[in-house]
Amino acid sequence: MTDLFAGPKPIIAALHLPDFRLNRHRSQAWFEDYALANARVFAEAGLPWIKLQDQTRTNGPATPETVARMAALARLIRAEFPKLGLGIIIEAHDPTAALTVAHASGAAFVRLKVFVGSAVGAEGTRHALGAEAVAHRAALRATGIAILADIHDRTVRPLSDEDQPTAAGWATKAGANGLVITGSDFADSLARIEAVCAKDIRRPLLIGGGVTAENVAQALATADGAVVSSALMRTELDPNDLVRWDSDLCRRFMDAAGGPA
To answer: Distance between the two ends of the chain, CA-based, in angstroms?
Structure first.
């Protein structure tokens, strides 16, 4: 397992998986082909990290099927691309599932969307995961798995009125190893990161959206890392295409970021 923050500022490409519930007609072999084909695009372009992202919509715990499939796909990616850093995110509001998958597969980090406070989104109300996540990580004896905590994720609305720097301070005290800041657009994301920095929050800050080849240098000058996905996707896709990300866009992005790590 590689430390996410041990080397250069991490650039993390999000590899979104199709919703498992809406794709029950797909075989495990199809999901394996999908995961490997897209991980290969990122690896060959020199992206140092990917985040394997489940998108199975639910407001309850992750199903056993989701946990098993995510662990199997993550282990497969690790075996095929051992130099590619790996993280895990699970759509369900379930920190034990994400950490269990990461532990089983040797992934270096998880990303959790509501780590402190409470928020409401499309799937309903969600409450802080921090205490449960840190306790489960300790029970697994897997403290080397970094927890990236979103602070006021843009896909939900906070149910309390604390500002973002205050929430960032809560997450730091609750045990997050890094904080993901995402505004309504790129300029807003930078402004939010600068506001958190002004409060002397002693955790790495990653910009969580809106990063492109045109602005990645600016993003890395302000933040301690970046998450990218949509800016690297192919623009013309058939619903049955396995490869969703564009190899040329990925290479241009890494060139703009200063080259492979």
So the answer is: 17
- So where are the chain's domains? 11-256
Residue 120: count other Cβ atoms within 10 Å of its Cβ. Answer: 13
Count of beta carbons in the 10 Å neighbourhood of residue 9 = 18
| pLDDT, tens only, 65-100 | 999 999 999 999 999 999 999 999 999 999 999 999
List, for residues 37-47, the tens digit of each pLDDT value. Answer: 999 999 999 99
Question: Two tokens at 151?
Answer: 């602070």
Rounded to an integer, what distance in angstroms lies between the CA atom of residue 189 and that of residue 207? 7
Determine how β-strand 109-112 pairs with β-strand 146-150. parallel
| CATH fold of the domain at 11-256 | TIM Barrel (3.20.20)
DSSP labels for 97-159? HHHHHHHHHT-SEEEES--SSEEEETTEEEE--HHHHHHHHHHTT-TTSEEEEESS-TTSEES
